C-alpha cells in the first residue's frame, strides 16, 4: 500500500516535470532552463565607473563616448543596459544624467530622486513604438540614462531600461538598488 | 466525525474545489513562464540558476495534480503532490511575510499587483486548502479506487 502511494506520487511529479519541460519548449513565450543571471549582475558597475572617471564628459552631450566605447550590442541590435551600483549612480546624478523613475505616478509623487522624470513602466510598455519614441524624443539618444524603480525586488527598472534601449538609446543604465537603497542611504529626495 | 469526513460526496466536493483552484491557478503561469519566474525569484528562496526550472515545472504539477484529483486518477498520489506544493507555498509565503518582502504573490495571476497584506490572506487560504487535501489523504478509502472484483480478492 505504502509503495503504491509513493509510486503514484512519483508518477504525478515525474510526469508533470516532463510535461512542463515539453510544454515550455513548445510555448512561444517559453523560457530557458537556466535564467540569464547577467540580468541582475552589477559586476560591470565598477569598471564602468572607472571608465567614466577617466574620461568624464557631459552626460547629456552628443560627444559622450565613454560608456559607448564598448557597446554591448545584443543580437537584436540594441545596446544592452548595464546594472550600476549606488556609488556610480550618485556620480551620474551629480553629473546630471537623465534619471527615469519607472514606478507609478502615485509612488513617484510620494518622493523620488531629485530631477528624475516619471515614466511609469506599466503604461509605457504597452504603447506602440511610435508613441514610446514620441515620449523619449526630447532626450539625447547617446546621453546617459539611469532607470530605477522601487528597489529591492522590483523588476520594473530592468524591463523599462530594455524598452528604452530598444528605441535606440545607447547608454541606458539600471540602478537596481532603486528608491529603497537611495532613501536608506539618506540621500536627497524630491516631492 | 470520521464517518462525516469519509463521506463520498464531501470528499468529491473537496476534490473538485481544490482541483479546480489548482487548475485555475496554473493556467496563467504556464502561459507566461517568464513572469512567473520573476515572481519565484522575488521570494528570494532559490539560487538564480534554479528559478527558471521551478517556474517551468511547478505550474504543470499544479495542473496535472489538479486534473487528476478531479477526475479521480491516482487520487492519493495527486493529493500528496498537492500537499507538498501547498507546504512549499506556505513556507515561501511565511518567510516572505516575516522578512517583510513587498512582492507580488504570483499565486493566481502572474501580473497581479498584490502587496504585503495580501500575503497574509494567501497564507490563510493555503492553510484551508491544506486542511482540505489532508482530509482526502487520510479519509479517502483506498479500496474505493479498485474495481469491485479486484477488492474481493484482496
Descriptive report:
The complex is a heterodimer of chains A (191) and B (154). By secondary structure, chain A is of the alpha/beta class. Chain A folds into 2 domains: 1-34; 37-184, Rhodanese-like domain (Oxidized Rhodanese, domain 1). In chain A, 42% of the residues lie in helices and 9% in strands. Chain A has helices spanning 2-26, 44-54, 86-94, 105-110, 121-124, 129-136, 156-166, 178-184, and strands at 82-84, 98-101, 117-118, 145-148, 172-175. Chain A is elongated, with a radius of gyration of 21 Å. Chain A starts with a helix and ends in a 7-residue tail after the last helix. The model of chain A is unreliable at 61-70 (pLDDT under 50). Chain B is mostly helical and 154 residues long. Chain B has one domain (2-138). Helices cover 75% and strands 0% of the residues of chain B. Chain B is built from 7 helices and no strands. In chain B, helix 2 runs antiparallel to helix 4 (48-71), helix 2 packs across helix 6 and helix 3 crosses helix 4 (48-71). Chain B starts with a helix and ends with a helix.
- Our count of domains of chain B comes out at 1
How many H/I helical runs of chain A?
8
Which two chains touch over the largest interface? A-B, 31 and 37 residues
Helix content of chain A: 40-55%
Give a short synopsis of this structure.
The complex is a heterodimer of chains A (191) and B (154). With 191 residues, chain A is α/β, with parallel strands linked by helices.
Topology summary:
The complex is a heterodimer of chains A (191) and B (154).
Chain A: H1 2-26, H2 44-54, E1 82-84, H3 86-94, E2 98-101, H4 105-110, E3 117-118, H5 121-124, H6 129-136, E4 145-148, H7 156-166, E5 172-175, H8 178-184
Parallel strand pairs in A: 1-5, 2-3, 2-4, 4-5
Chain B: H1 2-5, H2 8-31, H3 33-42, H4 48-71, H5 75-98, H6 116-139, H7 148-153
Helix pairs in contact in B: 2-4, 2-6, 3-4, 4-5, 5-6
Amino acid at each position: 500500500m505504502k509503495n503504491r502511494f509513493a509510486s503514484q506520487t512519483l508518477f504525478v511529479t515525474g510526469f508533470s516535470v516532463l510535461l512542463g519541460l515539453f510544454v515550455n519548449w513548445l510555448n512561444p513565450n517559453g523560457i530557458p532552463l537556466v535564467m540569464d543571471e547577467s540580468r541582475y549582475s552589477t559586476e560591470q558597475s565598477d569598471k564602468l565607473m572607472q571608465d567614466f572617471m577617466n574620461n568624464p564628459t557631459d552626460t547629456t552631450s552628443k560627444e559622450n563616448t565613454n560608456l559607448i566605447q564598448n557597446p554591448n550590442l545584443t543580437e537584436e541590435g540594441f545596446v544592452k543596459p548595464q546594472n550600476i551600483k549606488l556609488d556610480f549612480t550618485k556620480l551620474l546624478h551629480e553629473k546630471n544624467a537623465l534619471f527615469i523613475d519607472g514606478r507609478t505616478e502615485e509612488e513617484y509623487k510620494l518622493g523620488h530622486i531629485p530631477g528624475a522624470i516619471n515614466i511609469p513602466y506599466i503604461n509605457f510598455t504597452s504603447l506602440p513604438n511610435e508613441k514610446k519614441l514620441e515620449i523619449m524624443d526630447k532626450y539625447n539618444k547617446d546621453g546617459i540614462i539611469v532607470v530605477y524603480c522601487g528597489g529591492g525586488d522590483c523588476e520594473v527598472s530592468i524591463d523599462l531600461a530594455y524598452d528604452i534601449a530598444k528605441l535606440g538609446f545607447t547608454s541606458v543604465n539600471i540602478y537596481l538598488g532603486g528608491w529603497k537603497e537611495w532613501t536608506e542611504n539618506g540621500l536627497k529626495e524630491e516631492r | 466525525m470520521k464517518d462525516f469526513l469519509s463521506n463520498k460526496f464531501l470528499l468529491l466536493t473537496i476534490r473538485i474545489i481544490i482541483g479546480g483552484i489548482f487548475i485555475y491557478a496554473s493556467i496563467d503561469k504556464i502561459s507566461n513562464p517568464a513572469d512567473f519566474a520573476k515572481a519565484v525569484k522575488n521570494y528570494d528562496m532559490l539560487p538564480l540558476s534554479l528559478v527558471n526550472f521551478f517556474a517551468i515545472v511547478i505550474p504543470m504539477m499544479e495542473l496535472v495534480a489538479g486534473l487528476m484529483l478531479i477526475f479521480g486518477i491516482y487520487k492519493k498520489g495527486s493529493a500528496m503532490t498537492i500537499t507538498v506544493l501547498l507546504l512549499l507555498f506556505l513556507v515561501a509565503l511565511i518567510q516572505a511575510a516575516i522578512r517583510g518582502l513587498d512582492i507580488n504573490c504570483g499565486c493566481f495571476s502572474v501580473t497581479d499587483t498584490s502587496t504585503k497584506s495580501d500575503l497574509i490572506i494567501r497564507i490563510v487560504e493555503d492553510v484551508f486548502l491544506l486542511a482540505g487535501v489532508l482530509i482526502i489523504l487520510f479519509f479517502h478509502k483506498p479500496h474505493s479506487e479498485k474495481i469491485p472484483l479486484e477488492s474481493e480478492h484482496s
